Amino acid sequence: MEIYLPIAEMSARWLVLLGMGATVGFLSGMFGVGGGFLLTPLLIFYGVPAEVAVATTASHLTASSMAGAVAQWRRRVIDFRMAGVMLAGGLAGAWMGVQLFAWLRKLGQADLVIAAGYVILLGSIGGLMLNESLRALRAAKSPTPPPPADRHNWIHGLPLKMRFRTSRLYISVIPPLVLGVIVGILSSILGVGGGFVIVPAMIYLLRMPASVVVGTSLVQIVFVTAMTTILHSVSDFSVDAMLAFFLILGGVIGAQYGVRAAAKIQGEMLRVMLALLVLGVALRLLYGLVISPRDIYSLTVGTP
Amino acid sequence: MKHAVFACIALCALAAPAEGEDLVSGLSQDQIQITSNYAGTDIVVFGAIESPASAETASARDVVVVVRGPDTAFAVRRKARIGRIWINRDKITLYGMPSYYFLASTRPLTTIASAETLQRYQLGLANVTPKGESTRSIRKGAPFREAAIRIRERQKLYAQAPAGVEFLGYSLFRVRVPVPANVATGEYTAQVFLFRDGSVVSAQTTPLFVDQIGLERRLFNFAHDRPFAYGLATVLVAMLLGWGSSFLFRRQA
User: Where are the beta strands (DSSP E) in A139-204?
Assistant: First the structure.
């Protein structure tokens, strides 16, 4: 059964779209990540134009992080003030990213930047995660106490301090703002929520309590991806609502099974698997950049 | 249904005064509607040659059918290897290229007419040329033009069928025109040329409209006419679905 995607201007099997959404939803439920880093490349491999893939994934992330944020909100583990500060940066970043994206499209380099950005981002994060979780797996066998965390770092020397009660922090607003900007740019150019960047940054850089981190990052992702979706709709008409609908529907179903599956697997093992998955996607994209293309010419309809 | 149409044309052909060869042609449908489950279709261009047809006159005449989509611009880019990766380097924009081009003929084109004649009527993929180019250098543009045609052929949007005109008897003919799923919307033209001894003796043009209808069309229009509202609506639906799913999840957990 084929459906016609009006913005991507192609017909696709709706079962495939539902399946892709479900697969990504399953993995994101299992690993507790948004899954944008998987969905965008998957859509591109399927033949969806890169810019439509990026913009439409943003709306998928709005839905999936919304589901997560509601669950966290019930447990009252969201630092709204921190989310607000990061969001201010995030909205600015999303705006900058969409401008940058439009410019890259005009130059004909959007596909390259998307692919190269993914290779760098996923390669480094996958590598770090694999390294860390392998070390943790080994450490679990021969227990040695971890080095005590340094309570004070360079972050505490910055001005414009603000009190974040829920996180029990009194720090400068500059690091969360900058973090927000980075994630906003990533979201609008690569179509990722950026959870795998903010979560470690909030834990290791801002020293937020781990219990607050997930809910707070989810709230910020909901609004940044929502903003990205709107900006892409306005600036380059690349959001395909039909595509988004099927992806979200699949994602919502998949996520539930993912959460259940995660409960049955050992935590460290889960992280090794996620790291390998991330590295795999990075390698596949790198391969696409270095192999000789079948045709060195490419064609875009219209004058972007 | 189709037989009835042919019968009608045959009658018309017989009724017409025999003042040399003339052409009557039509389309199986004058409108293609792209709906949600559109996966490509075929249209039929049919026609009749009004002439006292006999075996000997039939052998010297040829029919060429061309279906063209609305003109558009193509940005053609060439990749170059920089370091280890392939990067888009040179770009040439071709203005006024048909978004769709299908040609069917009774014989290979070069055996029907001279190169000049074919070029004058833009017949054949070799004669599909842009109305303007972003480069002044003809030599520099040539590989880009060839690439554009090659890529459109691969996308099944340009095609040439040297034996695509099917004759039913001496006077009736028909051509099956494949219209793939990825065609542009707009006004198409179906041109039928009748050749005798290498020159055009009659030609006819019929318009054909390709439209998106239903939900897809409305979404497309919405996205382009009111992009902000469209983005906002998409986001709200996404949020609602996400929010709703968290309820579903709680009930099951």
Answer: 161-164, 169-172
